[in-house]
Design a protein that fits this description.
It is a single chain. The chain is mainly beta and about 120 residues long. It folds into 2 domains: about 35 residues, no CATH class; about 80 residues, no CATH class. It contains no helices and 8 strands. The strands form 4 sheets. Strands 1-2 form a two-stranded antiparallel sheet. A hairpin with a 3-residue loop joins strand 5 and strand 6. The N and C termini lie far apart (about 40 Å).
Length: about 120
């Protein structure tokens, strides 16, 4: 192993959110990268179906419970959600799939994505 340090995908796991670290050069694929200059990069999709995730990009939707009252998820502030009855045109009840970050965001708090606390190890959303 060389003494040179390079960018390394930790554990060699090709998973969303996997840590990228600095590590000794061993030349394996998890240390190999492509550089794509901005003028050559493909534009991110701003509409249409994202077949990898099954969501329409930037198209508003509701998250509706299958319980008998069919209530919807509503954001309360930028960091809490709860079930509420559906109300017409309430931005806190509407969500969209962001094709760039590949996350679900609130129509009311567009700078925040839905996130499961503790990297998915919690029941808090």
């Amino acid at each position: 192993m060389s003494n040179n340090k390079v960018l390394d995908v930790s554990g060699g796991k090709d998973e969303e959110g996997q840590a990228v670290i600095v590590y000794g050069n061993h030349g394996k694929v998890n240390q190999q990268w492509n550089v794509i200059y901005l003028d050559k990069a493909e534009k991110e999709a701003t509409k249409g179906l994202d077949t990898d995730f099954g969501f329409h990009i930037n198209r508003p939707f509701y998250i509706v419970s299958r319980l008998p009252m069919a209530r919807v998820v509503e954001c309360h502030g930028a960091n809490n959600i709860w079930l509420r009855r559906w109300r017409n045109n309430v931005a806190a009840q509407q969500f969209f799939f962001d094709g760039v970050s590949k996350t679900i965001k609130s129509q009311q708090w567009k700078n925040y994505s839905l996130n499961i606390q503790s990297n998915g190890g919690s029941t808090n959303l």
